[in-house]
Every structure is written in structure tokens, then in C-alpha cells.
Amino acid sequence: MSHGRTETMVAVIFDIDGVVIDSPHERAWREALAQAADRARFTSAFYQAHVAGRPRLDGARAVLQAFALTEPPEAYAARKQAALQRLIAAGAFTAFPDALHLLRALRHAQVPIAAASSSKNANAMLGQIPMPPYGTLQTVFTANLCGQDEPRGKPDPAIFLAAAEALRQPPTACVVIEDAPAGIAAARAGGMAALGIARHNDAAGLRAAGANRVVRSLDDIAVAALCALPATEEPR
Questions:
Q1: Burial category of 30 from C-beta neighbours within 10 Å (exposed 0-12, middle 13-18, buried 19 and up)
Q2: Are residues 152 and 227 in the same domain?
């Protein structure tokens, strides 16, 4: 589908893990579980519903509670972070081609774009992926708020509101692209439109969280349609 130039000036805010980068977060959470039986229960569906998009300690608490495990969440979160750093150092991640296509199209259309992930590891991955002629994925964005400390994680909208401010746009003129229900809920709580990307056959969950539109690939939405989402009042 064409990503043609648009005169509609809005801002687009990208979550990173699961939207732009096929990151090893889910794998790291799974590998950090001590017991093989618990690792088997840690499915992609569980990760998307209970862990994705949340701060590290919140994710650890969610897993431990769901699996009735009694270890301190700080210990589990620390093992997950160590596993993640090993995977990043090994290059165990890739960029989604459809995200790269959309980022280039938005840059061509001169639409302001922001990276907004609570992950402290997002920039380590973004900086390793070339994005000619803009440098790397880390430098392609108009504003980059990855790893910024916020008092509350998603579904609180703080990081997305900070991204809108960095782009000098009101929240009502922003579209957030998210793959997790918690991120969709955060966008909607901040008064922003939300595009859900259903990379895990979880379109129903994204719609239930309030996504204005859900696609299975970012190639399925043109820049003009994306920029029209702030005028969309009802999820579909």
C-alpha cells in the first residue's frame, strides 16, 4: 500500500519493543525463570497480556503472581535483565521491515516521529541498526524518550505525554503505535489515537484496550490513513 505524502501534520509516537524491533525481551523473561515447567507456561500470549509494555519490576511481579512463585521480584527482574543484556550483545534481535518502511515514509512526509519506550535497553538495540541516510534507528526519530524515568509505567500515559511535549504537539494530534494492550490503554488515557499492530494474533485484545484501528502489518496502513486516526472517535 502506498505511503504517499500528506499535508496533514500530526505526530506519530512509536513504542519500540514488538513494534519497531523484534526484541529478545520475551525470551529473556522466559529464560530467567528457574523451573522448566514455568518456562513452558510462559507463552507468547501470556507475555503479551501480562508483561509486554510494563516496567521491569511490574512485569516480574505479574509473572510471579500468575505462577504462584514466592521469590522476590527484584531477583527475577535482575536475572531477566542479565539474560537480556547477553542476548542484545549477541545480536539476538532484528528490526521489523514494515516498521522501517513506515518510518521512512513518515520522514519523507515530514511528520514528526518519536520513540517512546520505558525499556532501558531500547537505545542499545536501536543504535545497532543502520537506517541510511538518517544514520541509525536511534537517530531517525525527531525525539527519543527511550528509557526515560517515569514514576508510573503503562498503562499510565506519562511517557506518551512526554513524547507529545517533546514533539511540540498536543496529545489530541498524536497517534501512538503499540503492540501491547497496556500501551494502547496508555495512549487512550493520554487522549491520543492508538494504532494496534497485532504481531501475535492478538487483535481482539488490542481492540478491547481501545485501539482506534488494528493492523497485522504496518504496510497495511498508508501515511494519510495513519494521520487521520486522531479524528477517529470509535475503535474499529
A1: buried
A2: yes
